[in-house]
Amino acid sequence: MLRRLSMSSPDRLVYMANQIGTFFRSQGHDKAVPGIADHIKKFWDPRMKRAIFAHLDAGGAGLEPHVLEALTSLKQARPTEIG
Questions:
Q1: CB-based contacts of 58: which residues, under 8 Å, 6+ apart?
Q2: Whose CA, among 4, 8, 16, 27, lies 20 to 30 Å from 67?
Q3: Whole-prediction pTM value?
């Protein structure tokens, strides 16, 4: 049976975040990490950000290292601005 993942399910969000990370990876660590954070800040809705941050707080299983770093920096930057 095929299970459809909702847009805000942790598995779906991890997949999406890692895809963003794959896009930015070729730019090198110093550009990739802020690029990932900026993309998520600008284009993910508040529910998605809350869900990925909850996943991060639970250990962040499945997140690529540079994505994990980007999400951690985004969460710590300005919690009231990220939604």
A1: none
A2: 4
A3: 0.85
Q: Name the token pair of 21.
A: 């990370």
Q: Quote the crossing angle between the two packed helices 29-43 and 10-25, to the nearest 10°.
A: 140
Determine contact, residues 55/10, Cβ cutoff 8 Å: yes
Q: What is the DSSP string of 10-47?
A: HHHHHHHHHHHHHHHHTT-HHHHHHHHHHHHHHHS-HH
Cβ–Cβ under 8 Å, residues 13 and 56: no
Span 15-62, pLDDT tens digits: 999 999 999 999 999 999 999 999 999 999 999 999 999 999 999 999
Q: Where are the domains of the chain?
A: 10-82
Q: Given this model, what pLDDT does residue 1 score?
A: 41
